[in-house]
Design a protein that fits this description.
The complex is a heterodimer of chains A (427) and B (481). Chain A has 427 residues and is an alpha+beta fold. Chain A has 12 helices and 18 strands. Chain B has a 7-stranded antiparallel β-sheet with strand order 15-12-14-13-18-20-16, with helices on both faces. Chain B is globular, with a radius of gyration of 22 Å. Classes of the chains: A alpha+beta (427), B alpha+beta (481).
Chain lengths: 427, 481
């Protein structure tokens, strides 16, 4: 493997002194043992698509690129389970599973770039969470390397297992601050036999919310189910041939099951949407990739600011609306995963704005969003923003039980080797 | 040495004298749970609210007496047994359903709420709580959280950790805090996820937020009888492998069939060696399609009898032999020891054969009632504790079965937990570093060995069965307790 130059591994303007590219588990363990001994700070890297997540690193000496750990370790289709190394890309994994008409019910953005390890570490969001839960719900076993280099595992490769404490879940969303994920066992689901998408454009919050709530009461659950605003709504509408700016909210649902069931789901869903006076409604047979591809901003022109919050589904609509009305909708867009309650919001800066004002503007947007979410007992995590803003806020918001989390960090990374400062509350 | 009388006085000052048990005859009923292990608590205290729980935690810390939480005591791994001269904290007065949010499909309940009662309570709103341990008519939601309980319908929908959104817990410092909330996800380390399944060793659960699912439009229950266990396990693999994940796939074997026949009169064919129960649910069209598919596989695999119904009353009858199986074992032997191992689904056939060989080799009676769809075995070793050596032989057989499961790539426990029962076997699955990492969580939660001591991790002492024998000796009769 050709080693990439250090500047490729920049995090928040900081460049590491060296890059480690372990090819095996024991390589990785050696790297971390070395860092521990030399008191070096290391940041693990997967595909790099979500490295903006996290507070400013306190120190950064070594980038650990895990993409060399790229094997599918064990795949038993008849067990509906797979064990995979952290560096495998999401799309490579899904391609291998698709050969057996199976899939991992996890569809985070940038599947070709994003690795299994990085998507887990950053608890990435895909629309399948509406039905199958977050990726925390799909993991059945995990092997990690602690900051000291010690390799530990928990769980196993069976779908039901309560042998010992659940040490897997704390790593999911920990951006590698408790250990570097090296191997994960997942439970899988069969591919659906048939599928179709239905969509509708709505002008008012009330009608979009009512349509979604009605659809939630249907005798089936769409496997993907979102309500989008701003440029994301515009892109979905355009993909269906609707005129630009034709509606403020776009509801999009993916229906999957056997053929007969999908036929009835499609009819029922369209009828439901129509009942609430959409500006337009439409459907598309099959996986509807052109529509679902509209959800995420292009990787090469990232938004200036991305925020995320998970709340109860119905109140989440008001939160979605509050984000959409704060500014020119063309400068960003938000997605509510209706069946789960996660809202993702992306903002772009106006190109002609004076640079000094941008941090102030982003800060105001974040503060307003947090003020809107607070009454629901929910924090807004800033998943992407400028270094200048990171100097002023904790991107993770106000944590619960920070003391326990600090204790955990001490247990698994006593030398503060792994991404120091990047997690919540100074962890 | 603890001043027991002073401790009891102080406990009574917190909850009132009626809610502290300390006389030997009162403590008898708290000596055991659903497992075969026993121990006598120092005292039993039954608080009514969070403030009392906090006060009890602080008091016991001051006395340096450990605290063992208990729900309904239906656990099968000794989780609720108070080892090490502990005070038992019984949560059954926390029995209110605090709120149900129909629109967002969540509920907040107290931990003493009985599992099945929650589903009954929300059924008029078209909702239910998914995890359904076989003890669901007695077991509590708090106990389910401690053990990360499963149940037949977890095959398609997941176990407790997939359905609990958050908990209010009282930690070892006596402070109450929420882990998670009423939403599907919180950022930061998933402390909620770490706590669920920690077997009461991190703290006391005082409130639980759960998610509810809509009741399915249609349900079809099918029961197929096979002339060999091999055919039945083959059918399970074929169903899973064919791209259908039913809501439940359960199996009972020949020994179990013989036990249930006199009670439930299912009238299975006389040559039945295994009975498979498959349930599919969802939209009418999906259920029709999947039921036809399951039936075809069962018939192709050699089913000699096939029954199927979508009628709730008839469906309950079809389930009766599975749900009542354990109770029916009493007609075969006075005692049973239910082993809870897991194997990958593809190893089901091979492992069942090995268990059958083991029964023959050790000349013991093993009945199998299990969650076949997820490879979760429940071999029940039937014995009579009055026979000399029977307990030792039973425990030895249990250990052999668990070794087989782990060798096959499986796990020590699918849904009952480690507790006292399997702590000595943890080394089969995990090395010292793995176990040390797990114990690190206990430290992170500030629990040390204060809550539910001497559980889950190997102690170097032979507690499993030893506690059992001690209890028998203490009753002084040798009769069935």
């Amino acid at each position: 493997m050709t080693q990439q130059p250090v500047n490729v591994y920049e995090v928040d303007g900081m460049t590491p002194v060296k890059v480690a590219a372990p090819q095996t588990l024991s390589d990785l363990s050696d790297v971390l043992r070395g860092c521990s001994a030399d008191r070096l700070a290391a940041i693990p890297w997967g595909g790099g698509s979500r490295m903006q997540l996290g507070n400013l690193p306190r120190r950064y000496d070594v980038a650990i690129d895990v993409t060399g750990l790229n094997r599918i370790v064990e795949y038993q289709p008849a067990d509906l389970t797979v064990i995979v190394q952290a560096g495998v890309s999401i799309s490579a994994l899904q391609a291998a599973l698709a050969e057996k008409r199976q899939r991992l019910a996890f569809d985070p953005p940038y599947a070709r770039t994003a690795t299994v390890g990085g998507s887990l570490a950053s608890n990435a969001v895909g629309p399948l969470r509406s039905t199958f839960g977050g990726v925390r719900d799909l993991v059945i076993g995990m092997k990690v390397v602690q900051g000291t280099g010690t390799v530990t595992k928990s769980g196993g490769k069976v779908v039901k297992n309560v042998s010992g404490y659940d040490l897997m879940r704390p790593h999911i969303g920990a951006i590698g601050t408790l250990g570097v994920i090296v191997e994960t066992a997942f439970k899988l689901v069969p591919m659906p036999h048939a599928s179709a998408a239905v969509a509708g454009g709505f002008d008012s919050l009330e009608s979009a919310r009512s349509a979604c709530v009605a659809l939630l009461r249907a005798p089936f659950q769409p496997e993907r189910f979102i309500c989008a605003t701003g440029d994301i709504a515009g892109r979905i509408g355009a993909a269906l041939g609707e005129p630009p700016g034709s509606s403020r909210f776009v509801v999009l649902a993916q229906l999957a099951a056997g053929e007969k069931a999908v036929a009835r789901m499609t009819r029922t869903s369209l009828d439901t949407l129509k009942k609430y006076g959409p500006a337009w409604s439409n459907s598309m047979d099959g996986p509807a990739d052109p529509l679902w591809g509209c959800l995420d901003p292009a990787l090469d022109s990232p938004p200036a600011l991305s925020m995320r919050a998970t709340m109860k589904p119905v109140p989440a609509f008001e939160f979605l609306d509050s984000l959409a009305t704060k500014d020119d909708p063309a400068r960003g867009g938000s997605v509510l995963h209706v069946g789960f309650g996660t809202v993702l919001s992306h903002w772009s800066h106006p190109e002609d704005a004076p640079p000094g004002s941008l941090t102030e503007r982003a800060r105001a947007v974040v503060e307003q969003a947090r003020a809107q979410a607070r009454p629901h007992g929910v924090t807004v995590v800033v998943e992407r923003c400028s270094v200048a803003l990171k100097k002023e806020i904790d991107v993770w918001g106000e944590p619960q039980a920070a003391g326990i989390m600090r204790n955990m960090k001490k247990q698994y990374d006593p030398g503060d080797v792994l991404s120091p400062g990047r997690f919540v509350a100074g962890i | 040495m603890v001043d027991r009388n002073a401790l009891i006085d102080d406990l009574e000052a917190i909850v009132g004298p009626s809610f502290v048990a300390w006389r030997p005859e009162d403590l008898l009923v708290y000596e055991y749970d659903g497992s075969i292990d026993r121990a006598t608590p120092l005292a039993v205290v039954v608080p009514a609210n969070v403030a009392q729980v906090s006060a009890i935690v602080r008091l016991c810390r001051r006395y340096e007496v450990p605290l063992v939480p208990r729900g309904a005591g239906t656990g099968l791994s000794g989780g609720a047994i108070a080892l090490d001269e502990s005070v038992q904290l019984v949560m059954t007065r926390f029995r209110r359903i605090l709120s149900v949010d129909v629109e967002n499909r969540t509920a907040v309940v107290e931990p003493g709420v009985v599992n099945a009662d929650l589903s009954v309570h929300v059924a008029p709103s078209g909702l239910y709580y998914v995890p359904d341990p076989s003890s669901q008519k007695a077991c509590t939601i708090g106990g389910n959280v401690a053990e990360n309980a499963g149940g037949p319908h977890c095959l398609a929908y997941g176990v407790t950790t997939n359905h609990v959104l958050g908990m209010e817990v009282v930690l070892a410092d006596g402070e109450a805090t929420w882990l998670g909330g009423e939403t599907r996800e919180t950022p930061w380390y998933d402390l909620r996820g770490a706590f669920i399944g920690s077997e009461g060793m991190f703290g006391i659960v005082t409130k639980v937020a759960v998610r509810l699912l809509p009741l399915p439009e249609a349900v079809q229950t099918m029961v197929a009888t096979f002339r060999s266990l091999d055919e039945a396990t083959g059918a399970v693999s074929d169903i899973i492998g064919s791209g259908v994940v039913p809501a439940a796939i359960e199996m009972i074997d020949k020994v179990t069939i013989a036990a249930v026949e006199p009670f439930y009169h299912p009238g299975y064919p006389p040559d039945a060696e295994a009975v498979l129960l498959v349930e599919v649910d969802g939209m009418r069209e999906t259920v029709e399609e999947e039921a036809a598919h399951v039936e075809a596989i069962c018939r192709r695999s050699g089913a000699s009898d096939f029954r199927s119904s979508d009628d709730p009353v008839r469906r309950a009858e079809l389930w009766a032999t599975r749900k009542g199986a354990i109770g029916a074992f009493g007609s075969l032997r006075p005692n049973y020891y239910l082993v809870d191992g897991v194997v990958p689904r593809t190893k089901l056939q091979e492992t069942m054969r090995k268990i059958s060989d083991l029964a023959a080799e050790m000349e013991i009676l093993i009945a199998n009632v299990f969650h076949a769809g997820d490879g979760n075995l429940h071999p029940c070793i039937l014995f009579d504790e009055r026979e000399p050596g029977a307990v030792e032989k039973t425990i030895a057989a249990g250990e052999r079965i668990l070794e087989m499961c782990v060798e096959a790539g499986g796990a020590l426990s699918g849904e009952h937990g480690i507790g006292i029962e399997k702590q000595a076997y943890m080394g089969l699955m995990y090395n010292q570093d793995d176990l040390a990492a797990m114990e690190g969580l206990k430290v992170a939660f500030g629990a040390g060995d204060f809550f539910n001591p001497l559980k889950v991790f190997p102690t170097g002492r032979n507690l499993h069965g030893a506690a059992y024998r001690g209890a028998i000796r203490k009753t002084g009769t040798g009769d069935v307790v």
